[in-house]
């Protein structure tokens, strides 16, 4: 995940200068930018389905890393203007492996510790993004040839990331293994979930055995059937089957199909609320990323260095709050974190309103932008830490891979939607502010309504 963040930080700033080598039009930039995420969506669905079929973690990681290696290598080849596009498409296929990581974490962690580990993975992603400016300074010094292949500041990001993915693949081959697969081999293994404990199953088996004895006794005309004790056990067996063994939030299914995963997500109000919150916080964050570039240039007259510094501070803020959540995740419930994210997301979106009504170069425009970014950083850090983790605690463990893939697809759609909204509505900033504020206020209302539903009965494992 660190490398994915670093790749985003070094590739994105270099794309437009790179395409200018070929005298490309503006639409080529949009095509290359969207290619990675578009293919990543398809890859996430495929990998998520395979993950639910007990796909080998290390082998699949090596295969999908090869896509990153090949894709970044193709991206750095400057012999044709379509090679950067093809390279980002191939590299985007490797994006799907994130679904396997999330699914594996959901399987091997208990509800108490899951948010902490999900936060750790997200923090590693943010650290990669934060490292971007330093890596860009380093990569600007590249200027050498391999035959006719010129490695300079435009092609060096792809070349460098290909080398880093080769290194990561070697490390993965040595140190990564399938912990969930090893756990399945252990005697008495049960999936980590909200499902029944061994104690419940033992009780059920005992009561069902009593029911069997009663049935046999009826066939033989045994007086034992008149015992009120056994009759009570029969009733209790039925009650345990309906309520204790498979609670409403964790009905078990053996299929783990795409339809089951969709049903698992979109038939529970509180899960829908978390999905909505995550989606629109990402839309808020990514739309601000797009509009900041235009605000900085046309309203504040900032230089490129000022914009780079602002993005770096923004990433550092998100990373710091991610680390804080990593430390405090065991002491703060998921539902409280979701509420905090909704509150700060709402405040950040409302902060866009004074920005929309601010004249260029005014202090109000300057401070509105900074406050909005700061509030959004908190909301993004919190929902990134708790969103996937919270959802994983309310779904069938058999569907973890496909559910995480669906969440990845939705996140990527949000990442594509945000910049489109931000850039297209820059000249209509009031409409932009109304859309963001409306979506975030609705999110806060939904979170409050579903607050009690977010509570999870922690596993005893």
UniProtKB/TrEMBL annotation:
Gene3D superfamilies, A to Z: MFS general substrate transporter like domains
Primary location: membrane
Any GO MF annotation of the entry: transmembrane transporter activity
Name of one Pfam family that matches: MFS_1
CC terms in the record's Gene Ontology section: membrane
Membrane topology (UniProt): Multi-pass membrane protein
Keywords: Membrane, Transmembrane, Transmembrane helix
Subcellular localization, as worded in the UniProt entry: Membrane
InterPro entries, per database record: MFS (IPR011701), MFS_dom (IPR020846), MFS_Domain-Containing_Protein (IPR051068), MFS_trans_sf (IPR036259)
UniProt-recorded name of the protein: Major facilitator superfamily domain-containing 8-like
């Amino acid at each position: 995940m660190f490398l994915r963040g670093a790749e985003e930080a070094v590739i994105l700033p270099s794309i437009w200068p790179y395409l200018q080598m070929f005298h490309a039009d503006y639409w080529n930039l949009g095509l290359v930018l969207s290619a990675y995420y578009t293919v990543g969506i398809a890859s996430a669905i495929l990998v998520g389905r395979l993950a639910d079929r007990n796909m080998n973690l290390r082998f699949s990681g090596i295969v999908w890393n090869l896509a990153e290696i090949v894709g970044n290598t193709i991206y750095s080849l400057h012999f044709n203007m379509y090679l950067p596009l093809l390279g980002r498409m191939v590299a985007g296929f490797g994006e799907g492996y994130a679904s396997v990581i999330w699914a594996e974490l959901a399987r091997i962690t208990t509800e108490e510790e899951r948010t902490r580990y999900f936060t750790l993975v997200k923090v590693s992603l943010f650290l990669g993004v934060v490292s971007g400016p330093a890596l860009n300074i380093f990569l600007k010094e590249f200027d050498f040839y391999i035959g006719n292949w010129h490695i300079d500041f435009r092609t060096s990001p792809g070349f460098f990331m290909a080398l880093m993915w080769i290194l990561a693949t070697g490390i993965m081959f040595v140190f990564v293994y399938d912990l969930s697969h090893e756990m399945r081999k252990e005697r008495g293994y049960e999936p980590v979930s909200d499902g029944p404990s061994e104690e419940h199953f033992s009780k059920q088996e005992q009561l069902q055995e009593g029911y069997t004895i009663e049935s046999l006794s009826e066939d033989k005309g045994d007086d034992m059937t008149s015992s009120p004790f056994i009759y009570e056990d029969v009733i209790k067996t039925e009650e345990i089957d309906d309520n204790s063994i498979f609670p409403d939030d964790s009905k078990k299914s053996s299929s783990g199909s795409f339809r089951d995963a969709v049903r698992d997500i979109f038939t529970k109000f509180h899960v829908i609320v978390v999905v909505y919150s995550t989606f629109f916080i990402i839309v808020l964050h990514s739309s601000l990323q797009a509009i900041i570039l235009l605000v900085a240039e046309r309203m504040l007259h900032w230089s490129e260095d000022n914009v780079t510094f602002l993005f770096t501070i923004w990433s550092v803020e998100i990373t710091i709050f991610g680390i804080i959540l990593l430390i405090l995740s065991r002491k703060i419930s998921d539902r409280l974190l979701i509420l905090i994210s909704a509150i700060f997301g709402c405040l950040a979106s409302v902060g866009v309103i004074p920005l929309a009504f601010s004249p260029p170069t005014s202090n109000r425009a300057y401070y509105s932008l900074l406050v909005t970014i700061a509030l959004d950083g908190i909301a993004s850090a919190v929902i990134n830490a708790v969103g996937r983790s919270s959802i994983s605690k309310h779904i069938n463990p058999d569907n973890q891979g496909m559910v995480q893939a669906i969440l990845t697809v939705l996140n990527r759609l949000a990442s594509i939607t945000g910049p489109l909204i931000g850039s297209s509505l820059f000249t209509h900033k009031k409409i932009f502010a109304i859309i963001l504020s409306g979506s975030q206020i609705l999110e806060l209302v939904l979170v409050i309504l579903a607050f009690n539903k977010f509570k999870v009965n922690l596993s005893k494992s």
